[in-house]
Description:
There is one protein chain. The protein is an alpha+beta fold. The chain has helices at 3-16, 38-44, 49-56, 65-74, 79-88, 105-112, 133-139, 152-158, 171-189, 194-205, 207-214, 262-276, and strands at 118-123, 128-131, 226-230, 234-245, 250-256. It has a 5-stranded antiparallel sheet with strand order 2-1-5-4-3. A hairpin with a 3-residue loop joins strand 3 (226-230) and strand 4. Helix 8 (152-158) runs parallel beside helix 10 (194-205) and helix 9 crosses helix 10 (194-205). The radius of gyration is 20 Å and the shape is globular. The two termini are 37 Å apart.
Amino acid sequence: xxxxxxxxxxxxxxxxxxxxxxxxxxxxxxxxxxxxxxxxxxxxxxxxxxxxxxxxxxxxxxxxxxxxxxxxxxxxxxxxxxxxxxxxxxxxxxxxxxxxxxxxxxxxxxxxxxxxxxxxxxxxxxxxxxxxxxxxxxxxxxxxxxxxxxxxxxxxxxxxxxxxxxxxxxxxxxxxxxxxxxxxxxxxxxxxxxxxxxxxxxxxxxxxxxxxxxxxxxxxxxxxxxxxxxxxxxxxxxxxxxxxxxxxxxxxxxxxxxxxxxxxxxxxxxxxxxxxxx
Length: 278
């Protein structure tokens, strides 16, 4: 670990960012220096201000790979900059958290501008990487899982609770869509990929998935119309628009409802609920 160069690198990247670059208000308080404050970077990186400050001040413990991944996300680093950050932190880039965990900075800038919408960034394995407040209120917090359970594709076929928001009559169609998504990732990435690990586990654990897999499911729309049942407002009929990042196999999903419909009114109500949870 090169503490001095790591601290310098973080400071230069922090000072190069403006609040509006990361979806934050500039505010009226005068800034002593250009760029973001340490407390802002810490909040964007999901850590305490004290912990982040100690890294910039060349103090404290050796940051873990997970901590560095959080900082890379908070500072909107490119993949190349993220690799450099890991090397300064003393980690070989081959050992880092896999690339799908890192959201492209351009996609993050779009995501930052969707704070009032129901939006989330997911990997092609159904791993939810980022959610807006409204998306968490609508779908639940899907970012806190670990291991293979991070994948909605895995949870759908192994955890009955993963289906709670979907109507029973829609389960079969949604299962086919998820199996097709895995089939696409497996075909693209091969037998030694993360997708292959999920497939192998599901073939042994889920007869439903095994039957679907034998049919060689072909992917349909990335994210078609959805009917979601919410415990507070009931059924919502939503559309899902998608921005695809093919380089990192990630999707930005935005859920909307047709204006003037009951579902639109319910989504607006959930937006108020989400704002109260800040």
